[in-house]
Amino acid sequence: MPMFVDTSPPGECIFCRLVAGQIPSAKVYEDELTIAFMDIGQVNPGHVLVAAKRHAVTLLDLTPEEAGAVMRTAQRVAAAVQKAFDPDGISLFQANGAAGGQTVFHFHLHVLPRHENDGVSLGWPRKEPGPEALAGYAQRLREVLQ
Ligand code: 5GP
Ligand code: ZN
Question: Could you give the CA distance from residue 80 to residue 46 in angstroms, rounded to a whole number?
């Protein structure tokens, strides 16, 4: 089951329109499967989005080739961000589904330059349920892993 069903009419996805050049973007890089462009919001200067060119909603909708291509592009872009903006760190962020923080339902990965005390935060409430629970969770995953 997909975690998010894309109900936007064909041709109205904002990133599909951006890929097609129908709306402007500050493009950094593109290849056969991926495109990288500046995020309009710029959480920090140098904030880039790496998107699949094909309309795929979440990580689970990508082909393995697209998933690999996205990470290759992200690594190249991150190296460029490091050279051009010299951040203290770089975070990769990728949201799937509204509950996962996704607001544009066309797959993309954030390459986000980071600085000490830059105000970026993600709640991370650790539960530490212990080794038996971990073993049970791993078992559930091994049973369905493809
Ligand atoms: P999400 O919340 O889905 O992980 O990220 C969506 C991102 O897309 C946001 O950071 C937002 O600033 C960016 N964004 C939304 N619309 C546009 C647009 O038209 N152009 C560009 N360059 N970025 C956009
Ligand atoms: Zn799209």
Answer: 9
